[in-house]
Structure formats: structure tokens, C-alpha cells
Amino acid sequence: MAFVTEGNLTDLAVKRWATARSPRLAELMTALVRHLHAYAREVELTGEEWAAAVDWLTATGRISDDKRQEFILASDVLGLSTLVVQLNHRFSADATPATVLGPFHIDGSPAAPFGADMSDGVPGTPLFVTGRVLDLAGTPLPDVVLDVWQADADGTYEAQLPEIDEARLRATYRTRADGTYCVRTIAPRGYAIPMDGPVGGLISGTDISYFRPAHIHFLIDHPGHQKLITHLFQQGAEFLDTDVVFGTKDELIVRFTERPAGACPDGGTIDEPYLHAEFDFVLQPQAHTTDDEVTA
Ligand code: BEZ
Ligand code: FE
């Protein structure tokens, strides 16, 4: 083997990692080595800075558990999570765009009938979200499950409240025969990402706004269509143009119209003023797979 010099080190390390037996792992690791070395060369990384980075990564691992994922948060604020979403969801312009999942989704939310109130007494302004789920041709899709979750009016998710043992501000709704759905909830508010860990520590040394604009999360995984993980954002909300995780998209911004007490979108009545957001989700068909790809 050639002795190591500053000049040949990157090539030597790339050749070593090119021996990975999985071709994809070889591609991932050799590119990682090239980019890491280029980064260290570009910024002339010092030993102290390298050690500080190791300490930061160690702290990020230590604070993470099954409820808190600080590495995902790091990926979110660096824009990497949104980039991965973009690279893997090159949907047609007519389909509803995807955005980040975020760390607060909980599997197995209870089924809620059309118009059922998933806020169930949590304080806030009543909000109805209604619309249809459609395919790309505009055909309404019946029996589509919409998995919906959001923060309360203080910006707190159920996943951040260990003492809660029943579903809070999350539910699964199903479209009716005509493709319509109706979610009843409370208006979400913008909130700060967790700032008490290593990610918050880094952000505190910058002018980055650490808030997310008011939004509701939706996950729609319907057979024959690509899984859609997205949000609806309130038009005019604070932080839309500075979303700390780069999740906001123009197509996902919806007007929350103020309505008086009286008739409401689930066909019933309500005795206080409420907000109404209307949005049709358009699903991207499953990518065509050849027989070769299926058996590969
Ligand atoms: C969220 O929308 O729930 C979220 C996404 C990324 C980081 C923190 C929160
Ligand atoms: Fe969120």
C-alpha cells in the first residue's frame, strides 16, 4: 500500500470503501468519504473543531430515545429531510405535494366517523377540514383512510406528553362513497421545535427562527397510489416563509374561513363561531414496476 500523504489520502480511503460487497453500499460510502474529505479540506478543519463535532454527535445520540429523535431533528433543520422527500416524491404537478413526516406521528390512531371531533375537549377554536380525495384524473376515491395529527393550541403533541394514555388530537378518517371527508378539530398554532438539546444549542448561535407555522399533518396510504405524507398550513399564519424544517409549500397553504355559529360542514350545527378549511387531496398513482424490478 502507498504511504499516506495529504494528497493521496482521499483516493486511498475511497478505494478501501469501494470494496463494500453491496454495490449500493459501495456507492453510498465512497461518495460519503469523498464529500467528508472535501468538506474538511475546504474549511481546513482543526482538531478542536473535529472533537467538538464528535461531542455534539455523542450528545445527540444520548438525548435520543423512542420518543425523541434528535438526529431526525438535526436532519430536518439542515434541510436534509425535505431534500430526501423531494428526491423521492417527484409527483406530477397536479398531485398534492409531500412534505416532512416530523417526529410526532403515532401509529394506530383510532378510527373516527365523518365529522367526528378529534380534539375531544382540548381547548381551541373549532375547525372543520373538508374536501375530497381524488386520483390524478379527478375521480373521487371512496374508502381512503386519512391519518390526521396535530399539536394543541400551545404547540404540544400527544407524543410530548408521556402522562397521556388515550389518543389526543389524532384520528383516522375514511372517505365516503363520493370521496368526501370531514375532520373536526381545533385550529393549530405555530410552535417551536424542541430547543433544549444539541440541535437547539446549535441554532441558538444563529439568527435562525426555530418556529414552524400552524399546520395539520395528514398521512394517506391508499392501495395503487404512492403514500402521501403531507401537511395543510393555515394561510396567513406566522412563520410560513421561515419554517425551520423547510416544510412549507405553496400548494399546501389553505384558507381557514371564519364562519358564524349555526350549520356546520358535517351536516349538524355548532353553537359557536368556527373555522372552515377546504382541500382536495390528489394522489399520485403507484410508479409502474416492470416484472424484472419485482423479481430483482
Ligand atoms: C412537525 O411538524 O411535527 C415537526 C417536523 C420536524 C421537526 C419538528 C416537528
Ligand atoms: Fe407538526
Automatic annotation (TrEMBL):
Residues 129-157 form the Intradiol ring-cleavage dioxygenases domain. Pfam families: Dioxygenase_C, Dioxygenase_N. The keyword Cytoplasm does not apply. Its cofactor is Fe(3+). It comes from the Bacteria. GO terms for biological process: catechol-containing compound metabolic process. GO terms for molecular function: catechol 1,2-dioxygenase activity; ferric iron binding. Keywords: Dioxygenase, Iron, Metal-binding, Oxidoreductase. InterPro entries: Catechol_dOase_N, Intradiol_dOase_C, Intradiol_dOase_core, Intradiol_RC_Dioxygenase. Belongs to the intradiol ring-cleavage dioxygenase family. PANTHER family: DIOXYGENASE, PUTATIVE (AFU_ORTHOLOGUE AFUA_2G02910)-RELATED (PTHR33711), INTRADIOL RING-CLEAVAGE DIOXYGENASES DOMAIN-CONTAINING PROTEIN-RELATED (PTHR33711:SF7). This is Catechol 1,2-dioxygenase.
